[in-house]
Design brief:
- GO terms for molecular function: DNA-binding transcription factor activity; transcription cis-regulatory region binding.
- Belongs to the LysR transcriptional regulatory family.
- This protein has 311 residues and is of the alpha/beta class.
- Among the domains are: 86 residues, Winged helix-like DNA-binding domain superfamily/Winged helix DNA-binding domain (Arc Repressor Mutant, subunit A); 101 residues, 3-Layer(aba) Sandwich (D-Maltodextrin-Binding Protein, domain 2), CATH 3.40.190.10.
- The protein is 39% helix and 21% strand.
- It is built from ten helices and eleven strands.
- Strands 3, 4, 5, 6, 7, 8, 9, 10 and 11 form a nine-stranded mixed sheet that branches.
- Helix 1 packs across helix 3, helix 1 crosses helix 4 and helix 5 crosses helix 9.
- The protein is elongated and about 70 Å long.
- The C terminus is likely disordered.
């Protein structure tokens, strides 16, 4: 069966209508309509719910979506390998990330090795980034924190201590570092539940028996910065993500009791893909060992994941 039908199917699922899918594919609407009709007729399965011009996936359509995306990824990799003789002189690598930290330096390292390759970065929260990876929308993903799933491989990239930052008029701003216990009773500004920074700092505080005042939750790094700048409390951030500002000062926590870790993820079944391996080799700075052997012999930096609720 022609992969053009699967491309049309994916486009309709993503765009929500035949006309939008046709525009995205650069073909006529009747062409897309015919491809979807043929696909449903030959399979004898209803793939879409029709509500006027709007089309949404049925249960069977959702199952086919994953398979179709996987099929097109494999087709692209096959064509890429045959066309380029495995030299990585052309093609596209798609990266998912929760933020610009680290991913930009990874892109720079990859581009230096493979200047002919096209790179794209798709930003989102943790759930969206993992969803894109598992649905073959991206090839690799860069996330803070370990998400344990049997279908994923995670490679540790970097670990950074969590530091504090306080308004320049705050007493802590005159200190180079503070003991964790000194946060007891102080107003600590926290990200929303599920933030890897929040999880790490709360675990350290709980272990030490320290209870700051945390009456204010803020949903973004930028908002935390503004709240600290206005004297509403003390912020906590990974040192890799701290951006200097004359309105506040960074303060280290003695002993670095809390930290965040950045991981690079790929689908386990794609771990031997030329495209994925080229990225891991580039950010590693040298030859990449066999992933399966490394997985069996050393839990770090390659980690086979099992099962864990998303943060």
């Amino acid at each position: 069966m022609s992969t053009a039908r699967y491309r049309a199917f994916i486009a309709v699922a993503q765009q929500g209508s035949l006309s939008a899918a046709a525009r995205a594919l650069g073909v006529s609407q009747p062409t897309v309509s015919s491809q979807i009709a043929t696909l449903e007729r030959q399979s004898q399965i209803e793939l879409f719910h029709r509500q006027g011009y709007r089309m949404t996936l049925t249960g069977a359509g959702h199952k086919l979506m994953t398979l179709a995306q996987k099929l097109l990824v494999l087709e692209a990799e096959t064509e890429f390998f045959l066309r380029d003789s495995g030299q990585l002189n052309q093609g596209e690598l798609k990266i998912g990330a929760v933020g610009p930290f680290h991913v930009i330096e990874m892109v720079a390292a990859y581009s230096a090795r493979h200047p002919g390759m096209k790179l794209s970065i798709r930003m989102g929260n943790s759930q969206q980034v993992l969803h894109d990876l598992e649905n073959y929308t991206t090839d690799v993903a860069v996330l803070a924190g370990l998400y344990d799933r049997p279908e994923l491989l995670a490679r540790e990239y970097a670990r950074h201590a969590i530091i504090l930052f306080a308004h320049i008029d705050h007493p802590l701003a005159r200190r180079e570092q503070v003991e964790l216990a000194e946060l007891h009773g102080l107003p600590l500004l926290l990200r929303e539940q599920g933030s890897t920074t929040r999880t790490a700092i709360e675990k350290a505080l709980q272990t030490a028996g320290v209870k700051p005042r945390t009456q204010l939750e803020i949903g973004s790094r930028e908002a935390i910065r503004e709240a600290v700048a206005r004297g509403l409390g003390i912020g906590a951030v990974s040192e890799a993500e701290f951006i200097a500002d004359p309105r506040f000062r960074p303060v280290r926590i003695a002993g670095d009791p809390a930290s965040t870790t950045t991981y690079v993820y790929c689908m386990k079944e794609r771990s031997e893909s030329l495209l994925v391996r080229s990225f891991l080799k580039a950010i590693d700075g040298g030859a990449l060992p066999d992933l399966t052997a490394a997985l069996q012999s050393a839990p770090k930096p390659l980690i086979a994941t099992t099962a864990k609720k998303l943060a």
